[in-house]
């Protein structure tokens, strides 16, 4: 069975360097994000980042779902699971939420 494709990119204003101004996620896809360390000094100098989401007509909240750990492990290769597993939220039992 083919595994899901993982796409990564930096959201930012330097389009010439490959950064994207916005992130459009189509239906049937999962997404995750995190703040990177600042380039200067290697630490976090900012207080955070505001991430907003907009949905379009036709969106139904009942279609929204969080990726659970078991499905994450099924969708991705073992290499991707090892590298990206920290992005999957876990509930108190240790399972994906």
Largest sheet: none
DSSP summary: helix tally: 2
The counted number of beta strands is 0
Q: What proportion strand?
A: under 5%
Describe the structure.
By secondary structure, the chain is mostly loops. It is built from 2 helices and no strands. It has helices spanning 69-75, 78-84. The two termini are 24 Å apart.
Short note summarizing the structure:
With 97 residues, this protein is low in regular secondary structure. It is built from two helices and no strands. It has helices at 69-75, 78-84.
Main features:
97 residues, little secondary structure, 2 helices, globular
Give me the secondary-structure topology.
Elements: H1 69-75, H2 78-84
